Amino acid sequence: MPTIRDLAGAIRQREGVEAAVVLGRDGLLIDSQTSDTVDAEHIAAHVPSIIQFADEFGNAAQRGTLQTAILEMERGLAVVCALSSDAVLLVLVQPSANLGQLLYEIRRNRANIAALV
């Protein structure tokens, strides 16, 4: 059976992925596979506030809680995926990466990924 480390490694191996980080809803790092330029603990600490405000927005808009968010910044994208009530997947992606395929695979395997955490 694959482990959470295997999952992070498989995502990180995808072309254009700079980091695959699994963290708790409290922002504490569970596991990560990153390039040398990414500080996983530092970025993980910022994710809970993104989820909190996204959930608040979703409730106000009557859309429910966050499932997946895509944040587009100047030099790349961040995918924040709520795996369970306890765990989150953060993937940092270069702008040239095949984001559609990555999102499809995350969505299709969300339950399996969550079971690993």
Structure explained in plain terms:
- It is a single chain.
- The protein is an alpha+beta fold.
- It contains four helices and five strands.
- It has one domain (4-116): Dynein light chain 2a, cytoplasmic (Beta-Lactamase), CATH 3.30.450.
- The chain starts with a helix and ends with a helix.
- The model has no long low-confidence stretch (mean pLDDT 92).
Helices and strands in order:
Blueprint: H1 4-12, E1 17-24, E2 29-34, H2 40-44, H3 47-60, E3 68-73, E4 76-82, E5 87-93, H4 99-116
Antiparallel strand pairs: 1-2, 1-5, 3-4, 4-5
Number of strands: 5
Helix share, percent: 25-40%
Strand content: 25-35%
Mean pLDDT across residues: 92
Main sheet attributes: strand count, strand direction, barrel closure: 5 strands, antiparallel
- Head-to-tail CA distance between termini: 13 Å
CATH topology group: Beta-Lactamase
CATH superfamily: Dynein light chain 2a, cytoplasmic
Report the radius of gyration as a whole number of Å.
13 Å
Strand order of the largest sheet: 2-1-5-4-3
Shape: globular
What tags apply to this protein structure?
alpha+beta; Beta-Lactamase; single chain; 5 strands; 117 residues; 5-stranded antiparallel beta sheet; 29% strand
